[in-house]
Amino acid sequence: xxxxxxxxxxxxxxxxxxxxxxxxxxxxxxxxxxxxxxxxxxxxxxxxxxxxxxxxxxxxxxxxxxxxxxxxxxxxxxxxxxxx
Length: 84
Known about the structure:
With 84 residues, this protein is α+β, with helices and mostly antiparallel strands. It has one domain (10-82). It has helices spanning 18-24, 48-60, 69-82; strands at 32-37, 42-47. A two-stranded antiparallel sheet has the order 1-2. Strand 1 and strand 2 (42-47) form a beta hairpin.
């Protein structure tokens, strides 16, 4: 982990340095998610893409290997259709 110091400008604005924006894949007009951590009094910055990737990773940890949720849904739909 690395830290840099930046100044807060008028209106509470901060500038994320270009090298960090590039590493995070942030472009002009992108929406950034800010998360305040009350326990540590820290502000975390992430992109929606990063949050989605993290959520997918967490879900993958709880899914059985070689288990297809899509195939399971299709099978459930087929079974439901036979009962109609």
